[in-house]
Design a protein that fits this description.
The complex is a heterodimer of chains A (280) and B (128). With 280 residues, chain A is mainly α. Chain A is 65% helix and 6% strand. Chain A is built from 12 helices and 5 strands. In chain A, the strands form 2 sheets. Chain A has a 3-stranded antiparallel beta sheet. In chain A, a hairpin with a 6-residue loop joins strand 3 and strand 4. In chain B, strands 1-2 form a two-stranded antiparallel sheet. The N and C termini of chain B lie far apart (37 Å). Chains A and B meet through helix 5, helix 8, helix 9 and helix 12 of A and helix 1 and helix 6 of B.
């Protein structure tokens, strides 16, 4: 038994965890066996005092003491206004908490945005009709647009509820895909200094601007741009890498999926040109 | 077997999340039809982008046509296989399998080899 709880670092996954006893035990993160020395922890490389080694945790990770709403609000405030402070305080062994923050923030505001879109659907119907007129009949897009117009004209409870219920599932999948691709790029260019949990912390707290998804139309676009910037800041702080390396790890994944962004941009631009042409 | 696996407890939250994301990609490949969108880079310049062919590779992979998947994108097929293996292995660990797949350390040689493989794949997709 050690005199007080200490932090041990797993030599396999590099995660740290708190323990009050020495000897053989399994890492709670990766499950691999490891040996925590019993004596003179100050002299052991694998054992460090808790106060010096581990960040205190973000307000969301300390929501048990701060309260759920206060923890979430403070985390949002720090993510949007003081991101360096937030990422520096993130604990890498709190992946489940970080996932909870990302899912809560992105899905709740996505649901609010979808409900607002439903209320304002008359304008989007007109846009879809214009898009259908511009799309060739043999395009694979045409049946999809027609189905969307039909769905808008004959709304059903299932069609309305399904996207709302699926929002948290989509948020989990998006969070992990984003983190996996970002970490893959970071590994490829040699910038993944502290493992997947560090990338995951950066990617989850970077979803804070997705609260803007509640604003119809432009909110999501601004939110995604802000998310990319925050991912870069987060990667720099959590992996302790240079600004250039962080920018590369944050931007390359979006460069890869620029196809979808470009399609959206071209379709939006064409609609605007068409609308302007109609008014003249 | 020891070279690619190691003893481990139940899967951690990140292993579960990544397995769910991989499974979601494979399921989506069943639903999303091919040809819904054209790659804008290819449409504008005639040059394929580095990820061109991945959608088709996933599409054919989940339908069991490995030859068509490999023709579309060899690395895309490998990625689809990795998603499937990770999802199934994590499921098995949830049901008590005490082994985890061991990932290789990202050495410089491995990173350069991966970068080279991506370039080769891009050249193959661009020329085919």
């Amino acid at each position: 038994m050690l005199e007080s709880a200490v932090l041990a670092r797993c030599p396999s996954c590099r995660n740290t965890f708190s323990t009050d006893h020495g000897g053989r035990q399994n890492c709670p993160s990766c499950g691999k066996p490891l040996l925590v020395p019993e004596t003179e922890p100050a002299l052991q490389a694998e054992i460090v005092p808790e106060s010096a080694a581990e960040p205190v945790g973000t307000p969301w990770e300390r929501r048990a003491e701060l309260g759920l709403l206060s923890g979430w609000l403070q985390t949002m405030q720090q993510a949007l206004l003081e991101p360096t402070r937030l990422f520096a305080s993130a604990r890498l062994d709190r992946g489940a908490d970080q996932l909870g923050f990302a899912v809560l923030t992105s899905s709740v505001f996505s649901i609010i945005g979808q409900l607002l879109n439903l209320l304002l659907s008359s304008n989007s119907d007109a846009l879809m009709q214009q898009l259908l007129q511009m799309t060739p009949n043999d395009s694979p897009m045409a049946p999809w647009i027609k189905s969307q117009i039909q769905a808008a004209q004959h709304p059903s409870l299932a069609r309305t509820l399904l996207p709302l219920l699926a929002a948290p599932v989509i948020a989990v999948v998006f969070t992990y895909l984003n983190a996996a691709v970002t970490h893959g790029v970071a590994v490829l260019i040699g910038q993944a200094k502290r493992g997947f949990p560090a990338t995951f912390a950066a990617c989850t707290y970077a979803t804070a601007p997705l609260a803007l998804a509640a604003i119809p139309a432009c909110g999501s676009i601004i939110g995604v741009v802000w998310l990319i910037v925050l991912t870069g800041v987060g990667m720099k702080v959590t992996h302790r890498i240079s600004s250039g390396g962080a920018a590369a790890t944050a931007l390359v994944p979006y460069l890869l999926c620029c196809c979808l962004v470009a399609i959206g941009g071209v379709a939006g631009g064409a609609l605007i040109v068409k609308a302007l042409g109609m008014q003249q | 077997m020891k070279a690619v696996t190691e003893r481990a407890g139940p899967p951690a939250v990140h292993a579960l999340g990544l397995a769910a994301a991989g499974a979601a990609l494979l399921c989506a490949s069943f639903v999303v039809p091919l040809g819904l969108f054209d790659c804008p880079l290819r449409a504008a310049t005639g040059i394929a982008c580095p990820t061109c062919g991945c959608t088709r590779a996933f599409h054919w992979f989940v339908r069991g046509d490995l030859a068509a998947a490999l023709r579309a994108s060899p690395l895309g097929t490998l990625l689809a296989l990795a998603c499937l293996v990770h999802a199934l292995w994590t499921l098995a660990r949830l049901f008590g399998l005490p082994y985890a797949l061991k990932l290789p350390q990202p050495t410089r040689l491995l990173r350069y080899s991966t970068g080279f493989a991506i370039l080769l794949n891009w050249a193959y997709v661009a020329l085919s």
